[in-house]
Amino acid sequence: MYIWFFICVLGAFAVIPLHFLSVEHLKLQDRYGTEKGTKVGEIYGLISGWGFFFFWIGIWVSPQPRFSIPILQNLSVLVPVVNFSIPLFYLIISVFFLIPGVWLAIHGVKKVTLRVAETHRTEKLVTTGVYSIVRHPQHLGALLAHVGISFLFSAWYSLLFTPLMVVLIYLISRKEEEELIKEFGKEYEDYKKKVPMLIPRL
């Protein structure tokens, strides 16, 4: 019954190696030459980025058990949304996560451009705006949105998957940083000392 959820989970894991390859810009250029290596990396980036995005959506919307918080059931007013009722309390929780998550993700993409976000390749280091709050605002935004949407849909498996998603995002972020250090050297090392990876400083 819940096979689509597990297919989406496997799909999300399956594109991670492609993402790792897409950020190995110098290695790809050594192997294929500058122009072809850049193009190969961009193709890997597009496939892995959009693949991960669609599989992640699948994790949210695929058929799965719906959770409930028993002590709040009597307090939850159902809000009808396109043949689907959302408890008001869950809607409030989801907005609390979704607004900052979407804000971080959108501003992260705007700061580096959509092309860089899609292909995982940048010519210059961006350290201002949301990138002065955390080094990976798009990843943090995606995690916050994941929690918010899981509550919005009362998606039990999706919510349980959150710790694993945190690990995946951490591994992706760490891999990206290993490659950024190779490309930008001390400039990125200094940036790392000033700005946290995923959890903003208060």
Quick recap:
The chain is mainly alpha-helical. It has helices at residues 3-14, 16-22, 25-32, 34-61, 88-112, 114-119, 137-152, 156-160, 162-184, 186-194, and strands at 78-80, 85-87.
Please describe what this structure looks like.
The model has no long low-confidence stretch (mean pLDDT 89). The chain is built from ten helices and two strands. Strands 1-2 form a two-stranded antiparallel ribbon. It has a single domain, classed as Four Helix Bundle (Hemerythrin (Met), subunit A) (Up-down Bundle), CATH 1.20.120. It starts with a helix and ends in an 8-residue tail after the last helix. Strand 1 and strand 2 form a beta hairpin. With 202 residues, it is mostly helical. The longest helix has 28 residues. 69% of the residues lie in helices and 3% in strands.
Number of domains: 1
Examine the coordinates and then state which fold CATH places here, giving the name of the CATH topology: Four Helix Bundle (Hemerythrin (Met), subunit A)
CATH top level label: Mainly Alpha
Fraction in beta strands:
under 5%
**Rg, nearest Å:** 19 Å
Tell how many strands the DSSP assignment holds.
2
Major pleated sheet: 2 strands, antiparallel
The total count of helices amounts to 10
Choose one word for the global shape. Answer: globular
N→C terminal distance: 44 Å
| Poorly predicted parts | none
Helix content: 55-70%
Strand order of the largest sheet: 1-2
